[in-house]
């Protein structure tokens, strides 16, 4: 049982073939359709598709003017790319702790305590597709006149009790990496409430050119101006064609993820000492990108993973805490003990297989392997 597996069918294959027949492979009409349909699914005006989720975050920080001397408050318990993009903008990532074993998103109380006059933005990451406390984080951002960026890599156009994830803050960033719920190999998308910010992101995505390559290809003006310093973060038409097919199938695949998570919760809930974050939240309010569990401190994670692996079940760790990576220790003086809750939960966290194609029998196989492993090592 792999940890993840994308669901790819004839719709994706036909869409790719159609693009190949069209004669235009870089950003073009299929990308535009993907942007429009994703925006409609997320109930926002528009979106800017990009080459990956890291590019989405980079463009968000650049468009907000994050630069040298600025600080951005963000969770350490996340994939490292937001922290890396803040650093590459010349700013300082300020890591905040997470709420607790039941909620692995950044803790608004700790975020508020880390805001300084240098803070330019706060980042919320919807861990595993579960909403961070957006109302509290939005209040903090508003009070301090800083931007709220949602790293919604785990939650594509997902409804939650706080609204559609990625669309509540000033900017939302999505990833469509090969393992994500909406997978296009490599891909991402940015949404921003402010139209001027969105235009700036669109311009920066393609070298800050005043006329796009597609417009020139179609016989538009061949002379262009450049008003700032841009990048090439354009997605390909091939990726967006896959993305459109994945977007159309997303609601049904999300429902299946909810069924799988309900089954896991029911069948694993009685293991003494095993914590299942978010287990008390309604199953339909999340994207369920991951199924995380927390082992008790007495259980060796490597040993438990070894037993699962011997039973043919892959497991993963999401994530090692960013603040303890060598680069962040050396550059920013981060150290152990700085984020006690993050350090506790990241030492005990394990992700079990979760993808829309899992059958009930697959779930039962993982549960049985986990229960056996539990008997041996707990
Ligand atoms: C939480 C989070 N943020 C950002 C990213 C970066 O996205 P990408 O891999 O598309 O660059 C990822 C995933 O890879 C992620 O899981």
Describe this structure in words.
The chain is built from 13 helices and 11 strands. It is of the alpha/beta class and 378 residues long. The chain folds into 2 domains: 10-246, Type I PLP-dependent aspartate aminotransferase-like (Major domain) (Aspartate Aminotransferase, domain 2), CATH 3.40.640.10; 250-377, Aspartate Aminotransferase, domain 1 (Alpha-Beta Complex), CATH 3.90.1150. Helix 2 (29-41) packs parallel to helix 9 (237-268). The radius of gyration is 21 Å and the shape is globular. The model has no long low-confidence stretch (mean pLDDT 96). Bound molecules: pyridoxal-5'-phosphate. Pyridoxal-5'-phosphate is lined by residues 52-54, 78-79, 81, 125, 151, 153-154, 175, 177, 188.
**Sheet with most strands:** 7 strands, mixed
How large a portion of the residues is in β-strands, by DSSP E?
Answer: 5-15%
**H/E series:** HHEHEHEEEHEHEEEHHHEHHHEH
Task: Write the CATH homologous superfamily of the largest domain.
Answer: Type I PLP-dependent aspartate aminotransferase-like (Major domain)
CATH class of the largest domain: Alpha Beta
Ligand inventory reads: pyridoxal-5'-phosphate
Total DSSP E strands: 11
C-alpha Rg (nearest Å): 21 Å
Task: Give me the secondary-structure category.
Answer: alpha/beta
Features:
378 residues; alpha/beta; Aspartate Aminotransferase, domain 2; Aspartate Aminotransferase, domain 1; seven-stranded mixed sheet; two-stranded antiparallel sheet; globular; binds pyridoxal-5'-phosphate
